[in-house]
Amino acid sequence: MSAPLIITDCPRPRRAVADDFAPLLGDFDLDAFDKHDATIFGLDSDLRLAYFNEAWVRFACENEGTVDLVDPSKALESPVLRGITPDLRPFYRDAFRSVLDEQKVWDHTYDCSSPTTVRFFHVEVLPLHDPATDKRGLLMVNSFTEPIGPFPIRTPNPQPNPKNYISTEGFLTECSHCRRFRRVDRPEQWDWLPEYINNPPRPVSHGLCIVCLEYYYPR
Ligand SMILES: [Zn+2]
Question: How far, in Å, is the centroid of ligand 1 from the Cα of 74?
Answer without folding.
Answer: 30
